[in-house]
Amino acid sequence: MRSRVMPKPSWNLEYMMWIFTRISGLSLILLAVLGIGLGLIMGARIQMDMGTLMRWSFFPNSNHILDSEIPDLYLWANGFWQIIQILVVFFAATHGFNGLRTVVEDYSKPGFWQASLRFLVFLLWIFSSLVGIYVILGS
C-alpha cells in the first residue's frame, strides 16, 4: 500500500486569486464603511436621507446627492472620491469575474473551450472595468 503524495504548496494563479478574493471582499466592506463614516462626518446626518447615504456609500458619485439638502457639493465631488470609486469598481469587478472564472473552470473540461471561456471572462473583466472607470471620470 502506497501513501498519497502531498503536493508542495506554491504561488500559482489559483492560490493568488483565492487570497485576492478574501482581500477584495474585506476591501469592499472597508470602502463601504469608509463611505458611510466620512459621509456622516461631512454632514449627511442632517442633510440627506438614509437611502441617499447608502447609495453614496457604496458608489460615491456626486450625482447621487444632487436631490439632497447639501449646500456645497465640493466636499462630495473631488478627486479623493473618484479614487475611492475606482477602487470599488476594481475590487468588485475583479472579485465577481474571478468567481465567474471559477464557475467556468468547474463546469468545463480542460481544453480549447475552457481556455476560450477564460479568455472571454478576461475580456469582459477588462471591458467592464474600463466602462466603469470611464463613467467615474466622466461624471
What is the overall pLDDT average? 87
Largest sheet composition: none
Shape: elongated
Tell me the domain tally.
1
Q: pLDDT below 50 for ≥5 consecutive residues: which ranges?
A: none
Question: How do the SSEs run, as a string of H and E?
Answer: HHHH
Describe the structure concisely.
This protein is mostly helical. The chain has helices spanning 13-47, 50-58, 79-107, 112-138. The chain has one domain.
Give a description of the structure.
The protein is mainly α and 139 residues long. Helices cover 72% and strands 0% of the residues. The protein has four helices and no strands. It has helices at residues 13-47, 50-58, 79-107, 112-138. Helix 3 runs antiparallel to helix 4.
List keywords for this structure.
139 residues; mainly alpha; 4 helices; elongated
Write the layout of secondary structure elements.
Blueprint: H1 13-47, H2 50-58, H3 79-107, H4 112-138
